[in-house]
Amino acid sequence: MEEEELEFVEELEAVLQLTPDVQLAIEQVFPSQDPLDRADFNAVEYINTLFPTEQSLANIDEVVNKIRLKIRRLDDNIRTVVRGQTNVGQDGRQVKEITRDIKQLDHAKRHLTTSITTLNHLHMLAGGVDSLEAMTRRRQYGEVANLLQGVMNVLEHFHKYMGIPQIRQLSERVKAAQTELGQQILADFEEAFPSQGTKRPGGPSNVLRDACLVANILDPRIKQEIIKKFIKQHLSEYLVLFQENQDVAWLDKIDRRYAWIKRQLVDYEEKYGRMFPHEWYMTERIAVEFCHVTRTELAKIMRSRAKEIEVKLLLFAIQRTTNFEGFLAKRFSGCTLTDGTLKKLESPPPSTNPFLEDEPTPEMEELVMEKGDLDQPKKPKAPDNPFHGIVSKCFEPHLYVYIESQDKNLGELIDRFVADFKAQGPPKPNTDEGGAVLPSCADLFVYYKKCMVQCSQLSTGEPMIALTTIFQKYLREYAWKILSGNLPKTTSSSGGLTISSLLKEKEGSEVAKFTLEELCLICSILSTAEYCLATTQQLEEKLKEKVDVSLIERINLTGEMDTFSTVISSSIQLLVQDLDAACDPALTAMSKMQWQNVEHVGDQSPYVTSVILHIKQNVPIIRDNLASTRKYFTQFCIKFANSFIPKFITHLFKCKPISMVGAEQVR
């Protein structure tokens, strides 16, 4: 055995090579001054240390014996450590057995605690079920509300024990008690608020108030049935008073509907406000159900009496209805609109109240489309009204009456513009402030704003597309009848001539020029067309903001903008042709002049003087009247130069040769 251990130690010494870090750690834990413990031990140096001289060799036997003794001690220590490792496995098994015993004791303690707790819960459940059944029979709903919640909480602990017959029996008794409670509470409410007949006098009782607390714990359908029956009974009088055959049911007396529900809400708060839990939001639910019923009834009566609906009556009903929806938004949060307890309106469009007779709405203020108004900061919009459309949506199928009315009104408006222009004549020349925009265009777009705001509050669907079509129609009519139709003609032109045929040169006769008033009128029409072009673009953007996203692509006023661009081009062309034609006689005189007979050269030829005179007469007037639209004055100058210069060169080539004397004088 000793030989094997020695061999093991020798092999261990041969293969054991510690890293410098490990060696350093060992030296820190076990500090030693013995050279034999050093990692860089050198046998030669060690022997020289032991025997520095020849005389010291005399005690070599003593030194050898000490070293052998030290080796034997080291062998004994190593042997003890090696033999000690053979008992580690046995000691580990003993510790594991002790740990297993401790775990078993811990499990036993936990199971014992669970068993005691379960027995306590079972005792509570059995006693609670007995008490619950007794209280249910005596209608002690206040005590039942507290007890039932506790019993249901305790019963949850036995969910995994339902296989035990006794536990399953207790669970079935609890369910039976809940069913009996639900039926009993519904019967109590039916007795207090019968579906047929009047309400029981004396107001709500404490029994019903406690019954609502129990209904909060029962199946949600019990609560929903209570709410449904109570609201139905509460609105039964409304359905009788405002039947379709009653005079008060028509649109002209729509205010009476909203006055009735306001009185009912006050009556409910006084009599039943404390009977139902606050979290049931009964006041709001009554108002919401009233809105659903009213929307259905109004839609039915409007279908049957559609021919009697006039635009003033329709707008009156819409105004009163949206005012009422605004009242609901101030009074309630709208939280019951999405809980599904009662039927609800799908996807009501966003909005505010636009139909105020004497005051502009926030949208009207936002949509003031003056020149460049898109660069102005916009006011923040008011929060959405969750009740908007809950009643007023029933008017949407009848908005064609409104659209037809606006078609008629706009037609009359255009006719009035035409008549006013004929009666008042063109605007007076104003060279100080530039060309005046015709006031009729501002009136037209103000009316457009009003129509757009009204219609967008009622519907953002197809009626907005129909209104856009009407807008397009009368934008074109305004461009044709008011703008193009009032561009002046020369005295040599007949009423049926086009712009391209105007101002043709009449050789041998005086060329008719536009008067100062006519030049100012052309500039005014040009400025008006430029205003209409910019405002029409803004109108298109506003319409796209108001209409449903799915209909945006159907809003396109490009054709109308092109029409106004054509008016602008025609006006510029008229101004160019007028000045160009005024210069034609001078150019003609230049080409017919007998240059071979010219013997003396003056400071300036008469034809040059004539051309300069016409330019000085026309250009300043045009410049001043187009001061607000400088880019179009620039276009006029460019087009005139492009027309006059080639014509001047053409006439120059027509000139006959000058005499030799004249040529010498020119040189």
UniProtKB/TrEMBL annotation:
Query: A Pfam family this protein belongs to?
Result: Vps53_N
Lineage, top-rank taxon, reads: Eukaryota
Signal peptide limits: none
GO BP of this protein: retrograde transport, endosome to Golgi
Q: Where is the Vps53 N-terminal domain?
A: 94-421
For this protein, the record's InterPro entries field holds: Vps53 (IPR039766), Vps53_N (IPR007234)
> What GO cellular component entries does it have?
cytosol; GARP complex
- Name by which UniProt lists this protein: Vacuolar protein sorting-associated protein 53 homolog isoform X2
What is the gene called? LOC111151584
